[in-house]
Amino acid sequence: MEIEKTCNKCKEKKCLDLFYKQKNGKLGKTAECKDCRIKRSLAYIKHNKAKVRDTTRKNYDPDRKKVLNKEWREKNKGYFKEYREKQKLFFMTGEDKVNPLYIGKG
Questions:
Q1: Are 50 and 61 in contact (CB under 8 A)?
Q2: Nearest-CA neighbor of 25 among 10, 39, 7, 12?
Q3: Which pTM does this prediction carry?
Q4: Positive or negative CA dihedral for 56, 58, 60, 62?
Q5: What's the pLDDT tens digit per position in 17-65?
Q6: Residue 10 per-residue DSSP state
Q7: 90, 97 contact by CB (below 8 A)
Q8: Please, are residues 41 and 48 in contact by the beta-carbon 8 Å criterion?
Q9: Mind spelling out the 3-state secondary structure of 16-80?
Q10: Residues near 35 by Cβ (< 8 Å), separated by ≥ 6?
Q11: 8 A C-beta contact, residue 31 and residue 14
């Protein structure tokens, strides 16, 4: 028997798979189904085009990724050097070994 939940908007009983996850929601799901949520979101966007456009433009920064990458490289200066050394060591030994770079990754 599959558990069902009633949507607060359309009042239809639906399978739990048709609701988004929400930690503090009843049964760990949102109060409205995915279809109703999508309709509500699209209606909001339609009626608030300028606000959505301004917020999107404000939050979009084309240089953000470059800045984050540069910060990460500064914090992890020895990472690539260590990585290249491990690669060199692995490929120089002609033995059948497991690549030490991939241990524990799955």
A1: no
A2: 7
A3: 0.55
A4: positive
A5: 999 999 998 899 999 999 999 999 999 999 999 999 999 888 888 788 8
A6: T
A7: yes
A8: no
A9: HHHEEECCCCHHHEEEEEHHHHHHHHHHHHHHCHHHHHHHHHHHCCCCHHHHHHHHHHHHCCCHH
A10: 10, 18
A11: no
Q: Are 55 and 69 in contact (CB under 8 A)?
A: no
Q: At what angle do helices 49-59 and 34-47 cross, to 10 degrees?
A: 90
**DSSP state, residue 2:** -
pLDDT per position as a tens digit, 89-105 = 766 665 555 555 555 44
Tokens 């409205």 correspond to: 32
> How many Å apart are CA 103 and CA 57, to the nearest integer?
42
Structure tokens at 75: 């914090």
